[in-house]
Known about the structure:
- Helix content is about 70%, strand content about 0%.
- By secondary structure, the protein is an all-alpha fold.
- The protein has one domain (about 20-95).
- The termini are far apart.
- The model has no long low-confidence stretch (mean pLDDT about 95).
- It binds fe (ii) ion.
Amino acid sequence: MPEFSHPFMGNAYERKLTEQELVRAIRFSIASEFEAIQLYEQLRDSIENEEAKKLLIEIAGDEKEHVGNFLRLLKLLAPDEENYYKDGWDEGEEVMGIEKK
Length: 101
Ligand SMILES: [Fe+2]
């Protein structure tokens, strides 16, 4: 969520980020997208206005696409990280007894 308590919070850094700092910023961005999805879906489930619900569903879908955008960028910036996700995916399937495709 945005931070507005500091007048310079939205300014760019005086120096460019390192690749490692960019990777960390992308991970943070992914978390922010998930937070937005949660907010929009929770709001959708908490209102009765059908027009607003439709828009919130659309926006939540957009945020899910943004997760994919950032994950793709993360794969480019830190390609080894995908192996951890794959290991977790495989382990999850094994624990749940889901057959591998
Ligand atoms: Fe987004």
